[in-house]
Fold each of these.
Amino acid sequence: MIAGICYIIGLFSAIFLFIAPYSTNPTVRFHAMQSIVLQVVVVVGFIVLNVALAVITSIMPFAFFLYLLMPLVWLGVVGVFILLAIKAFQGNGIEVPVVSDWAKRFA
């Protein structure tokens, strides 16, 4: 039940739940680590995407319209985190394909 908090509140709650007394529960530990890894992947992905868009825009000035797609990407990421939180609150964990392998390794 408490594992869903990792996805909603953010990185600091996931780190807290990973090292706090809740860390004895393997489900909470897995969801906390999956949330941490997924948030790091999202931040790195957005940095790479912004750099790529900056390079493309400097080459083709009219490509700045691609920046208008960034809010849609952000809404997709928020939707994934909400889905993961709902499933974690229900007790049905969703394993994100690559991220869950890393989370299992570190958890």
Amino acid sequence: MEIGSPKPVKVYAPEHWVLGAKEISYKFNGSPIVGTFDEKFVLKSESGEILKNVPYVITNKVTGEQIRGITDDEGGTVRVWTESEEEVEMGVDFVRVFSKSSKDKE
């Protein structure tokens, strides 16, 4: 049996296995529980080229919470969730870009 739910599920059975999620997502309070609103970004250059392996930061403009990561091979970020409609902003994490490039020069 496969159960899908946007909320935690308790299962009582004599034998059971617990498997992880099919997709890792982030809620801004740090919990991977699915909220009502979600967004996944794709980072592209001005010419439309997909930017893979680029450090990014997603900021919740309401709470100030941030999620940092590196874009995947399709230029995508992790999916983020909020329980209500909130304004979020995504951009290149220049702090990590510059700190990485300065380490490369050493």
Amino acid sequence: MDDADAVDYKLDMTDDELRDIAESGWTIYVEEHCGDLQVRPPTNYYSGPWGSTRSAVAYAESPLAMIVYFLPKELWIRIADETNRYRQQTIGAVAAFRRAKMLARQAQDSRVSVPSLEDYEEKLALVYG
């Protein structure tokens, strides 16, 4: 907090004025009087069955399963769409990486055959498609 944010908390009343207000107009609640407060009991707004549903109990063993259970379906659809879009966008990079690994293996062992980059991309498109 800098000086520009500082607030002056100076009261406009003296201690004597505050004492006068406390004696004449304010009700002071002390701990021994707090138990005298009576509040009406809450109204029962729902009288039907309550508790966990069978479907929620089925997922209760795992915290991750509970997250999956309670997240909205629309969110899961969006997550799936974004995941699929990301996979489609990265097919070229994944194919190039896998082919580079196979070329490195082929450099060590000449018996290893390495498919073309297009073959890798086609295979990944089938898997991710």
